[in-house]
């Protein structure tokens, strides 16, 4: 690994990962206070994937994510306040508070959810790419999903269809080794997910998901292929989630040792170490970044707190498009 | 009243009204010359209602002093025809 | 099921005039109930929204049974009430509605629909054949349907039983005393004659209303007689609701109230009296009219009776009977002259009043009748 | 207004053609819609006319291509997705129920999905239990989608064109039995897809039905007319959002209702209609609401058993007679 050419960009990668980490730590706290309810799936440990991958996309590209999508929306640029308000269920949230944690939407950033049925987002991403292809737009649709989705028929159907029709889809598998509580080896006959691409005749590649620079580089390469008309691409980011599947679970499906070992590879600590090693980061720099983020999160919480509840009269609004 | 009433019309009206007041009575078999009160169960309230209905149906004014003249069917017919200038039965 | 008299132990709901969800205001008619005495309109004493009917048409339930739940304005809806019991009429909702509109007695209907259900057609058939309560008084000569006649006979029997129960109870429990006085009616009848000359046919007065009004005003002076016996003691009523005994054509009698009798002018009283008689005979009295009388007035003068010794109608504590207005030799200012007179008799409950008060009452009636223009 | 005699199949094809000609954003996608010409030949000749980009043969991946239809609609296209039959739509239920129906509401109104999803439905062709389902009532349960059941040639074309004007997902159920049926095509353009259609006036009973059962109901009404019973026939044709007003108006007039629905009785759309009548016209009813539905069994292959299982003309007439005590 080399010293990055652009120090500011490197600091930005660190800052984005820290934003996700601090934002989610705050949501965990707010969850225990009862401010946030329902399911809350935290991304802590996997930040390098969203941060690295999304560097490769332009604003005209589309993103389809899963129920573990806080980080993706933050990096994509949806304001933290709008996301926090959504977690509160407030009308100033990014989906008017109707979706909550699992269903972030942001039309202005072409962020199509927040689709929380495992595997359900892949066909939608294929369709978005089909629309681009039919309209001759050089866009890419990035579709995030977990290793659990690989067992779903929709994964296979979608890879096949996208490859068959040479559609500009980036299939981005966040392999955190567990489909909820079922370990990869217990749900996949072939645990090398990237290899599954071969069956559908598209390129597949595995990447170290704990290394933000590796993620960024691999994704940039894949985007280039896809945007160039090469058809879809499968990337498998090997990563790990440090916390429970949702807010709390008994974690009987994995050992504390295993979690501790992965935490040694914390993508943020690792990247911070590298930056310090390369003399790109001082303690003052870090303190300034943290202070910035703390202020942003305080502001986000205040924004959410100040938000109004959607009036009950609007309950059935937007089930269908309003006719004028 | 442009066309004078006939005796038959008056009798029909009187019997209809009596029938409404005393639905249980067989008004068709009333003896015309015998007092209603002797043939059927009607009281002063019924009789008042009878007079009022007669007044409303035939548009004739009936002073209280003349009530006794209306006590039988024949009496009614004669009285009403006299008041309205119609024919007279014997 | 409202109490419409002490002799009433139960009643049969004939029909609802409202349906759940309908708003009702105090005084409105919500149902029709068949008692032993008559078909009575049940009025409500609250304003609100009908939440649920607990008794179905055709059901006979004891007095005091809750018929329906009315949610007062602003109250939240309550938990569902228990289901109605067995014995329901098998009638389609639409037929039931139509029967209500046409005034057809549900009891008179026989179902010819699938499974013996009563359909709209069945209602129309009965209505055409004259099975309507109100409109059939026309007496077109058609014979009423057999079930209607049977129902009427049954009603008469039940009314007889009810009168028997009430009168037996009255004679058993109430220590009656009787006071009688003869009242000169010369002035009253003369005044009435003149008054009626001025009035169109439709507004003429019967002398009976003079008697009723006189009784009502006399009660103001002797209010102990205007009371009901309740829980071992007399409860005086502030309002004076004179019940007037009305004989029914098919037999039996009812004595519904002329509400606030003392506050009505003679003209109002006459109109209301006429209306009351009409409705009593048509079977459409209101529940309050049957439950509210505070005293009863009965007159048997039409039948030529001179003196009436009436039996008090529990829980009332007095009854005033009038005989026929007859010409008698009458001494006035030292001279004997023929004059119309009437005999008034007070039957009173000795537990509540004594003869002294009773005598004062009859004297007041007499005095009031001597100044008819002030009635 | 011109009238042309044509088949239901041709009417669907005419609708597809007109839509493809009119709007370059419209494309047709589904199994065997291209070279094969459509399982029911509804898209015969369209591949030649519009090319493979717009007439897309899809692999047997209902979930993927229905989901792709949703995605394409999100991406600004106007996809017409043909799922060969309602039976296979079960493989795409997740996409229809969890994505198509929810995204607009769940995104706070940010995204619309102008998707038209067509499929054949119904039994009666001796294709046994797995290919004879009638699930349009199921789909009508779901808020966020519109459910159409064209029963006439005019509706087959006009409803498709109207559906393409909708900003939200529309499911069109074409009863497979109807494709070869001939009828008069009214070239009146769009069909109002907010209203049920009165197909026959009557005073004695309302026959409430849709799709393939319309014709059986009309035939039953003919038979009943010969017996002096005048049945009114209402073609619901839009199951969601349901035109309750038309249903209630008819029941208020006739005081009796028989619902004919090819689905199984238990939990059927007929049950929904019945409930609507109870809620809205209870006091107008002169008898219980009756339902004529399919027998509670998977649809069998042999003709005599299939006939016994499905609603038929005599069964409908019998239900009416039973209600009238005739």
Brief account:
The complex is a heterotetramer of chains A (324), B (90), C (375) and D (326). By secondary structure, chain B is an all-alpha fold.
Write the layout of secondary structure elements.
The complex is a heterotetramer of chains A (324), B (90), C (375) and D (326).
Chain A: H1 7-32, H2 47-54, E1 62-65, H3 70-76, H4 80-88, E2 111-114, H5 121-134, E3 141-146, H6 153-164, E4 169-175, E5 178-179, E6 182-183, H7 184-187, H8 196-199, E7 204-208, H9 212-230, E8 233-238, H10 256-263, H11 267-277, H12 283-306
Parallel strand pairs in A: 1-2, 1-3, 3-4, 4-8, 7-8
Antiparallel strand pairs in A: 5-6
Chain B: H1 7-21, H2 36-39, H3 44-58, H4 73-84
Helix pairs in contact in B: 1-3, 1-4
Chain C: E1 10-16, E2 23-24, E3 29-34, E4 39-43, E5 48-53, E6 60-62, E7 68-72, H1 93-102, H2 120-128, H3 146-173, E8 176-184, H4 186-198, H5 207-221, E9 227-230, E10 233-236, E11 242-244, E12 246-247, E13 253-254, E14 257-258, H6 266-282, E15 285-286, H7 287-291, E16 295-299, E17 318-322, E18 326-332, E19 335-349, H8 355-369
Parallel strand pairs in C: 4-15, 11-16, 16-17
Antiparallel strand pairs in C: 1-3, 1-6, 2-5, 3-4, 5-7, 8-19, 9-10, 11-14, 12-13, 17-19, 18-19
Helix pairs in contact in C: 1-2, 5-8
Descriptive keywords:
heterotetramer, C: 375 residues, alpha+beta, OB fold (Dihydrolipoamide Acetyltransferase, E2P), 5-stranded mixed sheet, 30% helix, 25% strand, D: 326 residues, alpha/beta, Rossmann fold, 37% helix
Assembly context of the chains: heterotetramer
CATH fold node name of the largest domain in chain D: Rossmann fold
Write down the Rg of chain A.
19 Å
Main CATH class of the largest domain in chain D: Alpha Beta
CATH architectural designation of chain A: 3-Layer(aba) Sandwich
């Amino acid at each position: 690994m080399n010293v990055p050419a652009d120090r500011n960009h490197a600091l930005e990668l660190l800052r984005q990962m820290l934003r996700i980490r601090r934002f989610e730590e705050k949501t965990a706290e707010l969850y225990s206070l009862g401010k946030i309810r329902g399911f809350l799936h935290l991304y802590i440990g996997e930040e390098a994937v969203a941060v690295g991958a999304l560097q490769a996309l332009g604003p005209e590209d589309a993103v389809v994510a899963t129920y573990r999508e806080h980080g993706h929306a933050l990096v994509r640029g949806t304001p933290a306040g709008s996301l926090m308000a959504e977690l509160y269920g407030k009308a100033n949230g990014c989906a008017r508070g109707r979706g909550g944690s699992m269903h972030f939407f942001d039309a202005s950033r072409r962020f199509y959810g927040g689709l929380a049925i495992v595997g359900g987002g892949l066909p939608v991403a294929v369709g978005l790419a089909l629309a681009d292809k039919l309209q001759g737009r050089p866009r890419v649709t990035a579709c995030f999903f977990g290793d659990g989705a690989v067992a779903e028929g929709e994964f296979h159907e979608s890879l096949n269809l996208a490859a068959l029709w040479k559609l500009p889809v980036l299939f981005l598998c966040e392999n955190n080794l567990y489909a909820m509580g079922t370990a990869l080896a217990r749900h996949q006959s072939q645990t090398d997910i990237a290899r599954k691409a071969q069956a559908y005749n598209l390129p597949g590649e595995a990447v170290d998901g704990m290394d933000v620079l590796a993620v960024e580089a691999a994704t940039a390469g894949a985007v280039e292929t896809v945007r160039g008309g090469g058809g879809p691409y499968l990337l498998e980011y090997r990563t790990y989630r440090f916390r429970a599947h949702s807010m709390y679970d008994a974690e009987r499906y994995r050992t504390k040792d295993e979690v501790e070992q992965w935490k040694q590879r914390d993508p943020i600590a690792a990247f911070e170490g590298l930056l310090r090693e390369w003399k790109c980061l001082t303690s003052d720099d870090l303190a300034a970044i943290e202070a910035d983020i703390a202020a942003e999160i305080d502001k986000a919480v205040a924004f959410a707190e100040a938000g109004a509840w959607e009036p009950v009269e609007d309950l059935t609004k937007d089930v269908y498009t309003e006719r004028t | 009243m442009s066309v004078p009433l006939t005796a038959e019309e008056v009798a029909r009206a009187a019997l209809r009204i009596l029938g409404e007041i005393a639905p249980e009575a067989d008004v068709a078999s009333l003896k015309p010359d015998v007092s209603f009160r002797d043939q059927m169960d009607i009281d002063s309230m019924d009789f008042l209602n009878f007079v009022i209905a007669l007044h409303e149906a035939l548009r004739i004014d009936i002073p209280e002093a003349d009530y006794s003249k209306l006590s039988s069917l024949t009496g009614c017919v004669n009285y009403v025809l006299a008041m309205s200038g119609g024919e007279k039965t014997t | 099921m409202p109490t419409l008299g002490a002799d009433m132990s139960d009643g049969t709901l004939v029909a609802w005039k409202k349906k759940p969800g309908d708003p009702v205001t105090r005084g409105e008619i919500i149902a029709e109930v068949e008692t032993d005495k008559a078909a009575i309109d049940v009025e409500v004493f609250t304003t609100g929204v009908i939440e649920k009917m607990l008794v179905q048409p055709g059901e006979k339930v004891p007095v005091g049974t809750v018929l329906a739940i009315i949610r007062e304005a602003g109250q939240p809806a309550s938990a569902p009430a228990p289901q109605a019991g067995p014995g329901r009429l098998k009638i389609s909702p639409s037929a039931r509605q139509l029967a209500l509109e046409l005034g057809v007695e549900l009891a008179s209907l026989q179902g010819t629909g699938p499974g013996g259900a009563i359909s709209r057609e069945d209602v129309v058939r009965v209505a055409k054949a004259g099975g309507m309560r109100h409109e059939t008084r026309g007496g077109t000569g058609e014979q009423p349907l057999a079930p209607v006649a049977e129902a009427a006979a049954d009603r008469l029997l039940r009314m007889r039983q009810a009168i028997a129960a009430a009168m037996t109870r009255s004679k058993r429990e109430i220590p009656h005393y009787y006071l009688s006085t003869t009242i000169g009616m010369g002035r009253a009848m003369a005044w009435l004659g003149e008054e009626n000359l001025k009035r169109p046919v439709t507004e003429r007065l019967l002398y009976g209303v003079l008697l009723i009004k006189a009784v009502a005003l006399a009660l103001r002076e002797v209010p102990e007689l205007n009371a009901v016996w309740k829980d071992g003691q007399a409860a005086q009523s502030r309002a004076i609701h004179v019940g007037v005994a009305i004989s029914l054509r098919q037999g039996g009698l009812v004595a519904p109230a002329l509400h606030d009798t003392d506050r009505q002018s003679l003209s109002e009283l006459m109109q209301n009296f006429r209306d009351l008689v009409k409705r009593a005979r048509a079977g459409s009295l209101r529940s309050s009219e049957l439950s509210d009388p505070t005293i009863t007035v009965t007159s048997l003068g039409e039948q030529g009776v001179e003196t009436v010794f009436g039996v008090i109608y529990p829980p009332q504590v007095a009854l005033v009977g009038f005989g026929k207005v007859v010409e008698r030799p009458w001494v006035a200012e030292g001279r004997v002259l023929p004059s119309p007179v009437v005999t008034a008799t007070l039957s009173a409950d000795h537990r509540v009043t004594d003869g002294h008060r009773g005598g004062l009452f009859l004297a007041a009636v007499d005095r009031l009748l001597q100044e008819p223009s002030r009635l | 207004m011109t009238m042309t005699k044509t088949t239901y199949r041709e009417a669907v094809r005419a609708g597809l053609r007109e839509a493809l000609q009119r709007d370059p954003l419209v494309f047709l996608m589904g199994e065997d819609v291209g070279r094969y010409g459509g399982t029911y030949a509804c898209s015969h000749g369209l591949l030649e006319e519009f090319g493979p980009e717009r007439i897309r043969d899809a692999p047997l991946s209902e979930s993927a291509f229905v989901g792709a239809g949703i995605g394409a609609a999100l991406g600004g296209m106007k996809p017409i997705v043909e799922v060969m039959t309602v039976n296979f739509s079960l493989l795409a239920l997740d996409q229809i129920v969890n994505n198509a129906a929810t995204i607009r509401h769940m995104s706070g109104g940010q995204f619309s999905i102008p998707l038209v999803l067509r499929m054949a439905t119904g039994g009666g062709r001796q294709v046994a239990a797995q290919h004879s389902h009638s699930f349009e009532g199921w789909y009508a349960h779901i808020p966020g989608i519109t459910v159409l059941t064209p029963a006439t040639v005019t509706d087959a074309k006009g409803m498709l064109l109207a559906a393409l004007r909708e900003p939200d997902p529309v499911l069109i159920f074409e009863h497979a039995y109807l494709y070869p049926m001939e009828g008069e095509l009214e070239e009146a353009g769009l069909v109002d897809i907010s209203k049920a259609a009165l197909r026959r006036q009557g005073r004695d009973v309302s026959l409430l039905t849709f799709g393939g059962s319309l014709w059986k109901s009309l035939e039953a009404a003919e038979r009943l007319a010969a017996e002096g019973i005048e049945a009114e026939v209402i073609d619901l044709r839009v199951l969601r959002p349901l035109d309750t007003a038309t249903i209630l108006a008819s029941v208020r007039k006739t005081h009796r209702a028989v619902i004919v629905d090819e689905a199984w009785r238990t939990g059927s759309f007929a049950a929904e209609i019945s409930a609507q009548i109870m809620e809205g016209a209870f006091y107008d009813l002169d008898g219980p609401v009756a339902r004529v539905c399919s027998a509670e069994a998977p649809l069998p292959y042999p003709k005599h058993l299939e006939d016994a299982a499905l609603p038929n003309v005599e069964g409908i007439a019998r239900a009416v007679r039973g209600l009238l005590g005739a």
